[in-house]
């Protein structure tokens, strides 16, 4: 019986089946507003972005999606995150910020990337 959620990642519609970790966050560079009389008065809002980071095992055939070329070309990428249990999806469009490969003696080769895009939210699915 499944008790906990998993998040699946798709890049331009291609499932990244070799993920070992996926992290997603909503971020903004909001600035504090400080006044002499009211002390902390609130924030000046900044645009919200969704950041996605993932770590993937590299199969012998290679990484399923050419993140490096998308980074080099500065090509817009669509990332879809889908929760496996609820089915909720988050779709965001943006750009690859970093991508790296790691390999070592006695270690599985991995590929990692960081993406930043529009703030899309998780919605839909079997629960609404």
In short:
This protein is mainly β. It has one helix spanning 67-73, and strands at residues 7-11, 14-15, 19-28, 31-35, 39-44, 48-57, 77-83, 89-102, 110-117.
N-to-C SSE string, H for helix and E for strand = EEEEEEHEEE
For the terminal residues, how far apart are their CA atoms?
22 Å
Spans with pLDDT under 50 lasting ≥5 residues? none
- How confident overall, as mean pLDDT? 92
Major sheet: 7 strands, antiparallel
Number of separate strands? 9
* Computed Rg: 18 Å
Class from secondary-structure proportions: mainly beta
Number of alpha- plus pi-helical segments: 1
Give the neighbour order of strands across the main sheet. 2-1-7-8-9-6-3
Beta-strand share of residues: over 45%
List keywords for this structure.
single chain, 128 residues, mainly beta, two-stranded antiparallel ribbon, 5% helix
Kindly describe this structure:
With 128 residues, this protein is mainly beta. The chain has a domain at 9-26 and 48-117. The protein contains one helix and nine strands; from the N terminus they run E-E-E-E-E-E-H-E-E-E. It has a seven-stranded antiparallel β-sheet with strand order 2-1-7-8-9-6-3. It has a two-stranded antiparallel ribbon with strand order 4-5. A hairpin with a 7-residue loop joins strand 8 (89-102) and strand 9. It is globular. The mean pLDDT is 92.
Indicate the topology:
Layout: E1 7-11, E2 14-15, E3 19-28, E4 31-35, E5 39-44, E6 48-57, H1 67-73, E7 77-83, E8 89-102, E9 110-117
Antiparallel strand pairs: 1-2, 1-7, 3-6, 4-5, 6-9, 7-8, 8-9
């Amino acid at each position: 019986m499944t008790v906990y959620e998993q998040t699946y990642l798709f890049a331009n519609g291609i499932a990244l089946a070799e993920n070992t970790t996926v992290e997603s966050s909503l971020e903004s560079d909001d600035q504090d507003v400080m006044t002499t009389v009211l002390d902390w008065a609130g924030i000046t809002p900044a645009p919200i972005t969704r950041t996605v980071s993932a770590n993937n095992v590299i199969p012998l055939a290679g990484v399923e999606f050419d993140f490096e070329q998308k980074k080099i070309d500065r090509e817009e990428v669509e990332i879809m995150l889908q929760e496996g249990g609820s089915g909720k999806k988050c779709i965001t469009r943006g750009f690859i910020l970093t991508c790296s490969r790691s390999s070592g003696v006695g270690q599985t080769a991995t590929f990692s990337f960081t993406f930043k895009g529009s703030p899309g939210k998780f919605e839909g699915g079997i629960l609404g």
